[in-house]
Structures are given as structure tokens and as C-alpha cells.
Amino acid sequence: MKDAASVKNVVSIIKAHVNEHLVVVVSAMGKTTNALEKIIGLGQAGKSFDAELTNLKTFHAAIINDLFAHPQSIINQLNDLIVQIERNASAHGDYDFIYDQTIGYGEIISSVIVHHFLLQEELASQWIDSRKFIHTESTFREGQVLWNETEEKIKELLPVVKNKTIIAQGFIGSNKKGETTSLGREGSDFSAAIFGYCLLAESVTIWKDVPGVMSADPKRLSDPIVFEELPYKETAEMTYYGASVIHPKTVKPLANREIPLLVKSFIDPGLAGTKIYECHVDKLPPLIVHKENQCLISCKVTDYTFINEEQLGLIFQAISQSGMRLHLMQNSAISFSFCVDYSENRVLKLISLLSKNFEVYYNSGLTLITVKNYDQKTFNEYRSLRGVILEQSSRSALQVLIKN
Questions:
Q1: H helix or E strand, kind and range, residue 190
Q2: 152-171, pLDDT tens digit by residue?
Q3: Residue 169, SS3?
């Protein structure tokens, strides 16, 4: 959702399925999450973010004024939420903790707007706070779901969903102290899967600005294929490599309960989209995934010994402590290299930990390209790209890391 027209489109989709007992999970509007990240960064650096906060408020107020005949009460709620953003972003403490206390307000604001617009359209709607239903460990920025507690709480919604459309926020949960945790960027898909799993849903549908799951990003490559259907396993591997249409954690809970996942077009809801379920598809074409903002970190031993299991243990322990996930790894006799998403705070923390035992070098601003199910043509094409600094292949996937 990026404007008033998008909210109206959401409501038209809900109207088309209003008798199907819906839980609707919404994301932040437009580039709100990016704006909040900037606000958090400025706040933690002790700098003013007044201009950014004003822009955020103006953006949402314009949408509210376009949607509502009597907007003032919703504007008042927006103002209250903006005050909370300002307070949280200005607080002092651990960066990841401050991040999670602030970043989910984009989803909260958008869910309030959608809920009230449904009421204006005379549709029965119930707003809920996802933080009271999705319970996680205190792993800030990468909340690990406590499934038993979460399922027990979400099941309380079963009587409600029979009579009202439930509007919830994606991306956020809370720990046992009631502190907000986030589920990772683009985590709204995962939130929908959590609700679907716990409520034994008939299906979960993700609405995107593409016609379904595609063999490549249409902004990068012309004429990508739209998959009509995909197996859970294939989809899970695609998300592992960075296919951004679905959050990596979305597939597992749905596959565990054999709940189909549908990926449909928000722009053209009449399109068939992609159905992901337990099926078999012969001869899948090459799938090409670009993952930007990557960082290559290399650890070298300092005493001319070889990289061994003990040293690998130290490296993986540091990676785990930094809360990072590997996308590619490769070792030689005296070095171990790996690729992660570039997050300055986490990368610097990781380098500090590794430097106790290794010489550490890193390159940022890289792009990781994965070609899954490659054929000879795509294998040769992507190996010969300019700027390749690391290459790795298996029987089913080729990965190349390139300088932009």
C-alpha cells in the first residue's frame, strides 16, 4: 500500500472474500519502514530527525484526508503514534532494542487506517495488536517465535473471525516482558503464515505487485516466467537464496500443516497467480535471484596454520553472536570467506569478535546472484559477468558475488 487508491484496492479485495472468515495482515505504507530506519539512525546518532518525522506524518495524513469523510479522529490517532515514534527513536540503549521498539509503527499506522476505512465502508472489522498474539524470544530484529504460546493466544481469535474481518499488523511480535520484537525485514508474509498455521487456515494468500512467483525480477530481466504452481521445497530453497517475493520463514509453518500458499497480484486480482503446495513440477526453468547490499568477510589465520575445525567453530560462534545469516561460504587452506547482508552495526560487531583470532578483511556494496536450476547457457553467462570476486556452484545452483 502506498496511497489512498491502494487502501481502496485492499478493501475491494476484502469485499470480494468477506464471507470467508478473514484475517488480514497489513504491511507499512510506501517507504515508511525505510523512513523509520533513517529516523532511528539519526536518533541514535544524537541528530535531529524532525524533518523526517514531519514528512512521515504528512504522508499518512494526506492518505487519511483522501479516504475519510470525517478524518479528524484518525488524524488524532496518527498524532499519538507519531509522538510514540519520536519518544522511542530518541531513547538510549542497545541499537537493536531501540530499532524494534520503533520500526513496527509503520504497520500499526497502516492497520489503523485500513480498519477505520473498512468501518466507513460498513464492513465488520476488528483491529488487533499483533504484539499481543505473536510471542517471541528476545532476539531483537530477528524474533524467534514461541510457537506453543503463540498458537494458544491466536486460537482465542477463532470466535471473532467468524463474525468480523480481523485486521492485524505484520512484522511485529513481543517477548515475555511485553517489549516489541520484529520478525526481520519484509516479515509480514511470515506473520500471515503464523496466523494461518495457528488458525488451521484453509489457505494463506500474499498480495504483491507482481503477477505471481516469477523466474527472475521483471525489473532486471525481460519476460520472466510466472510459475502456476510450485512445491513447498522448491519455494523454500528460492527464498533461502534471496527471492524477495516471499519471506524466507513463510513456507515452513504452512508446509508443516499442508496449508496452500497463494501469491497473487495486488494490481490485477483476477490473475491466477502462483499456488505453492505439495506437488511435483517437471523441468523447472532457471531461477535467477539478485541479492544486493552484500558484504564479503574473509578471515585469515595469523600463524600460518591451516583453517581447521576449531577455527571454524570460533568463526561460526561469532556469526551466531552477531545475529547474522550466511548466504555463501568458501574456504581455502588459510582463509575462510563468507557473505552476509550488510548491516553496519552488526558487521562491525562481527568483525570485532573475529579480530580476536583472525586477520579480517571485508568488502561491502556487493551483489550476490544465484542461478538455481541452471542450464549450460545461464551457467556460462553468469560465470563470465564482469566484476566476479567469488564463485561457487553445485549440481543445482550457481552463485557469483560481484562488485556493483
A1: helix 188-198
A2: 999 999 999 999 999 999 99
A3: strand
